[in-house]
Amino acid sequence: MTDETLTGAAHHALPSAHSPGVAAAKARRWGAFYYMEHVLRVMKGYSWSLLMYSVGHPVAYLFAMGVGLATLVDAQGAGAFGGVGYVTFVAPALLVSAAVMTAANEFTFPVMGGFKWRRTYYGPHASPLTPQQIAAGHIMAVTLRFLLQSAIYFAAVALFGAAPGGWGWVAILVATLAALSFGLPLMAYSASITEDKGQFALVMRFIVMPLFLFSGTFFPLDTLPLAVRWIGWISPIWHGTELGRVFTYGYQEPPLLTVLHVLVLVGLAVAGWFLTRRQFALRMGR
Amino acid sequence: MHNEAILPSTARAGGRKTPRTVITAENLTKKYGDVAAVDAISFSVPAGESFGLLGPNGAGKSTTMKMIGGVTSRTSGSLEIMGLDPDVHGPEVRAHLGVLPQQDNLDEELRVRDNLLVYGRYFGLPMSYLKPKADELLEFAQLTDKAKSKVDALSGGMKRRLTIARSLINEPQILLLDEPTTGLDPQARHILWDRLFRLKEQGVTLILTTHYMDEAEQLCDRLIVVDKGRIMAEGSPAQLIRGHSTREVVELRFGSERNTTIAAELDGIGDRLEVLPDRVLIYAHDGESALEQVASRGLRPLTSLVRRSSLEDVFLRLTGRSLVD
After folding, report:
1. Predicted confidence band at A168 (pLDDT cuts at 50, 70, 90)?
2. First-last CA distance in chain A
3. How far is B29 from B75, CA to CA, in rounded Å?
């Protein structure tokens, strides 16, 4: 150490922290963004694997469906899929499903871990941030991931020629909305769990998988018997997929149905948002 | 020598106007259902004091700390931190504090220095302040060479020091320390005590809970002894010992079989006798002469020890139980 440092002289140049009043005012206003920064910084630590997943997933699925399966399906004539090729039909469904599956990962173990294992919610809880801001910050960071992943996915869809017309990019937003409409109610549930008894494995097997298979993903919903068709009606994947199809290839459906898709998705997301905020406040304020 | 480094900026922060009393609690109560975890306790802490809550596990220490920390609401009574009610002005109260929680909650997926940076952002502090401050605090916590390590590569003592460094990122004038050294080995405890003592010297108000009497004696100017949510006694360590115990204590071990039966034969020696499962304690002003009396009655303990009274004895006297189970 130099003499300067020993006497502390070198450190006189250091600025001091702003007052607690300023800190509290800033936190009241921007607190959710501060926690979002934290989560993004953690994500940066494994950005390479996030990127590989975001690119690899659509390429593999679109190749299998668009080049493999589509060759057989399209040979039967395109009538069954509203006059478009199979890859065009299936691409928005894959895009939306991928976002929902990412939501199922991001809003389960990381949320429970924030309370129970890694306890990362309790650090900011002692700072000026509120539980509601911590929840919001986590959601915003994950939303950015949905947007980025869906944008990459959409680029792959466009490369496969499965998004004719100029409005296809809206499907990026649709996929993100669908992910939130499924993910936020799930997040509220994850925040309420105190013991891990394999609930999340059950969610994946008995909720996510059936939704993925029976939401008009690989075939139009109305080809299913009524006994299982209701799964599609309550499924964010179905509402998101149909909405996505409207934008990627101009799928024709009654306009009221399009409005309904938006209302269902927004409604689920908003309900999940409030439940999550409440659950965070309850659990941390104990 | 690194430690001087922290003095200037924190000392400057100390120049802010601070009320003479930083914490005031009156009949502070927290109930979970019908159970009162904290039962109508009252105390106040002047600025710059090192104030301790001493008591066994489950005494209500952590609950009290959470209420002071503005993360748990109270059931009744009043509480003010820097003149603010934490139930109303939670963010403002928390902006004044540095907190060392009982259980470390560092982000193990981030590197050591990044933990300080993200935490500082919670207070809206800009990176131009945070980057040099983080380096200064890492020096203070003797973790400079670990700045780029992942947190899970640190030892328990290092994690504790990093959590203390994190709690200082906003230059708080009040530091809440919930069982700061529980689970650390003796060497790590002494390093931590040294760091905390330096903060105390800089005028930071320390509020700490502990169930270690030596920790309370080392760090606290004044403390309250709490048990079952209530205050049993209050004062400086020396006052408490003077008021509730004798000057010296003789510890005798006769073997676990005989400790109880032999108590009758010790009757009349010293001021008071305490029979524990593993030893017999004789409270006396003059321990050596009490020990001579034991020998003169023909009793031969396996081991004997004369020592000064401690807070452990105070607690034993007040509650009839030991601090650490």
Report:
1. very high
2. 47
3. 6
- Res A181: pLDDT: 98
C-beta separation of B60 from B38 below 8 A: yes
- The answer to whether the Cβ–Cβ distance between B8 and A122 falls below 8 Å is no
Q: List phi, psi (to 5°) of A81.
A: -115, 35
Do the Cβ atoms of A15 and B170 come closer than 8 Å?
no
Measured in angstroms, the CA of A118 and the nearest CA of chain B are apart by 7
- Where does the pLDDT of residue B293 fall: very low under 50, low under 70, confident under 90, or very high at 90 and above? very high
Residues paired with residue B79 on neighbouring β-strands, in sequence order:
B25
Distance, in angstroms, between B32 CA and closest chain A CA? 9
Contact (Cβ atoms closer than 8 angstroms) between residue B301 and residue B252: yes
- Mean pLDDT, rounded, of chain B: 89
Burial label, A106 (beta-carbon count in 10 A; 0-12, 13-18, 19+) = buried
> Crossing angle for the helix pair B237-244 and B311-319, nearest 10 degrees?
50
Chain B contacts of A26, Cβ < 8 Å?
A: 123-124
Please report the pLDDT score of residue B10 as a whole number. Answer: 40
Q: State pLDDT tens for residues B44-56.
A: 999 999 999 998 8
Q: How far apart are CA B175 and CA A181, in angstroms?
A: 41
pLDDT category at B14 given cuts 50, 70, 90 is: very low
- Residue of A60, A84, A59 whose CA lies nearest to A220: A84
Q: Provide the percentage of residues in chain B whose pLDDT is more than 90.
A: 70
* Shortest alpha-carbon distance between residue A126 and chain B (Å): 7
What is the structure's pLDDT at B9?
41
Chain A residue numbers with beta carbons less than 8 Å from the beta carbon of B171 are: 16-17
Instruction: List C-alpha distances in Å: A201 to A118, A179, A205, A214, A268.
Output: 20, 18, 6, 19, 22
Q: Average pLDDT for residues A130-155, to the nearest whole number?
A: 97
From its phi and psi, is residue B40 left (phi > 0), alpha (psi between -120 and 50) or beta? left
Q: Calculate mean pLDDT across residues A260-274.
A: 98
Tell me which residue in A6, A122, A284 faces B4 most closely, judged by beta carbons: A6
Token pair, residue A219, equals: 């075939």
Chain A residues in contact with B14 (beta carbon < 8 A): none
Which of A24, A34, A119 shows the shortest C-beta gap to B105?
A119
- pLDDT for res A10: 43
- Mean pLDDT over B282-304 rounds to 91
CA distance B196 to B177: 10
> Do the Cβ atoms of A23 and B108 come within 8 Å?
no
pLDDT band at A242 (very low <50, low <70, confident <90, very high): very high
Distance CA B10, CA B207 (A): 18
Q: Which residues of B touch A17 (CB under 8 A)?
A: 9, 13, 123, 125, 129, 133, 169-171
Q: Token pair of A121, please?
A: 């919610």
Amino acid in the structure at residue B105: N
**Which residues does B213 contact at the CB level (< 8 Å), separation at least 6?**
B54, B310, B311, B312, B315, B323
